[in-house]
Design a protein that fits this description.
This protein is of the alpha+beta class. It has 3 helices and 3 strands, in the order E-E-H-E-H-H. The C terminus is likely disordered. Keywords: ATP-binding, Nucleotide-binding.
Amino acid sequence: MLNAPVIGIVENMAAYVCTDCGKTERPVPIGHTEEMARQFDILLLGKIPSIRGYSIAAADDDEGSVFVDSVRRDTPRRTTFLRHYDDVEIRTFFE
């Protein structure tokens, strides 16, 4: 068992938006992550949708770029990652 503090939950691949028709599908039932956060009394940091741009930015990481910096500042994608950053007490894990 890993003896480390839990900072919070991030739901990865919370939704998938079809690039052809724009329909949104959710692989995890709505509310499941919120219920888990309540059950364990931990912060829900965010929900990250599966978007093609994420995999492209992650692939670019081999060049030493920081993923969040590769996403335009004024987009919801960047906000999803940083929305609760200032609320997290143990920010030094990310710095």
